Amino acid sequence: MHRDPVELEIFKNLYHSIAEEMGAALRRTAFSPNIKERRDYSCAVFDGAGEVIAMGDHMPVHLGSMPMSVRAAIDAGEMMPGDIVMLNDPFRGGTHLPDITLVAPVFVNAPAVGARGRAEVRKAETLRGRSRPRHIVPDFYVASRAHHADVGGAFAGSMGLCREIYQEGLRIPPVKLMREGAMDRDVLSLLLNNVRTPQEREGDLGAQIAACHTGAERLREICARYGVKRAQRAAVELQKYSEELMRAFLRRVPPGKYRAEDFLDGDGISERPVKIAVEVRVAGKDARLAQDEKAVVVDFTGSDPQVEGSINAVAAITYSACFYVFRCLLEEDIPAAAGLMRPIQVIAPEGTIVNAHPPAAVAGGNVETSQRIVDVLLRALAQAIPDRIPAAASGTMNNLTIGGIDPRTGEPFAYYETIAGGMGARPDKAGVSGVHTHMTNSLNTPAEALEYAYPLRVRRYSLRGGSGGEGKYRGGDGIIREIEVFTDCEVTLLADRRSRGPWGLSGGGDGAPGKTFITRVDGSSEEMPGKFSTRLCAGERIRIETPGGGGWGHA
Fold first, then answer.
1. At 353, is the secondary structure helix, strand, or coil?
2. What is the per-residue pLDDT across 90-115, written as a single tens digit (0 to 9) for each?
3. Using CA atoms, how far apart are residues 393 and 141, in angstroms rounded to an integer?
4. Backbone phi, then psi, for 481, in 5-degree steps?
5. Please, how many CA atoms are within 13 Å of residue 19, restricted to the half-sphere of its CB?
6. Cβ contact 346:318 at 8 Å
7. What is the C-alpha separation between 354 and 302, in angstroms, rounded?
8. In what order do the strands lie in the sheet with 296-299?
9. pTM for this one?
10. Which of the residues 212, 275, 441, 497 has the least number of beta carbons within 10 Å of its own beta carbon?
11. Alpha carbons 109 and 414: distance in angstroms, whole number
């Protein structure tokens, strides 16, 4: 049928608005500052086949990998009206254990939830023909993912220097948190009895459930107005349209092989640098490609084997980073649908730092290795399209977790935050200072919210002047954030870009590497590595100076 561009634009914005409203519902009803203030969450809408058709403007590291979690939930068994599946397993589409995903099916014309509703659905299925599959295919799916400040494990905040995933927290396969609209109390109790802050976790899970309900209701409203078939046809067209736009862009990229490599400082166990290598093979406009052939191959062969520490990335993370980079090369109003990646093949050899096997520890792979994968991809693409690629950004999320007993309540607390850095300079303008870049799209916790919720005080929060790289266009400056603790507690930092700063491009200088200091009660100061865990006594402080972005062009 002839594609109606006006109708396609309407549905693109309708589906995107649903994902955005889901995120707003999650944020408003969440309990933890990490979700309510930092906005460490993501929501998306999927078609009946589990293909993403719209994403909110949320966390890139969540969004690119979320379709794999949805696929794992679908493959785990049939979903009936009112069911919600929960999972966080990094080896089944997740990212790291604190990121819990909820997946809900959307039946537009479903009967009432409950035993009677299930019987009615079975009866309707039988009447449609015994040759049909016994399970019922939903019309759509919705999903919400949020970073929970603690999911158990050896370290408060579940982001420690672990050697295997079993130390990192509770690993959840696809299980039903809700069945036919009712909470499965056994599953919920199992989760809440294995975390340090059960009330906060239950509240945040409730917010995710509310987000899924919001998405499902909005989809039903759209289908009531336009009809289910019309809405589903528009979803299919959005996939085709996004694929066509990506193929059109890739035909403008000069053909060739573009190689690059970059390094993580170490895995927290060893100081040996960890290499990520990539080769981007572009077919070019003159290649005679069939519609289903790949115009670009992104090959990570040559990357180091998986390591003992927690910076291993699973396949979903690597795919997510590739999705993000190529999505950024298109115009902003392009639909963020699964069709974007159809012309692109990602090769991530098994057992490497970019596709680790269990029982590898993976907490830092989601937050640190994902950033380096983006850096190395951009470095390779700068050889092909130098006028489109910025210098390296800070390249680390500076993951800080602080946990202990809150003296005000006598209850455990777990504080988690990522701290911004400098953006890399661009071919036509300077980088932005003090901003979260690339795979993170979160905010810093406001000092007022942090001090209200935790026994902590922000002693300094400022830009790190002069940390951006020199160049025709300067890189953005990093941040200085110093926090004092009011109780004895455990502090963990997962950060990178400490041994070498973010690289500049086209003659631009490198950004300044990050630094971390611990100030003891007696006034002595100790410089710390990028990845460590230590005990702080009441009155002691941690000071984090984040990297600046690389410069672009000769000064």
1. coil
2. 999 899 999 999 999 999 987 555 54
3. 35
4. -135, 120
5. 28
6. yes
7. 10
8. 256-264, 274-282, 296-299, 344-347
9. 0.93
10. 275
11. 42
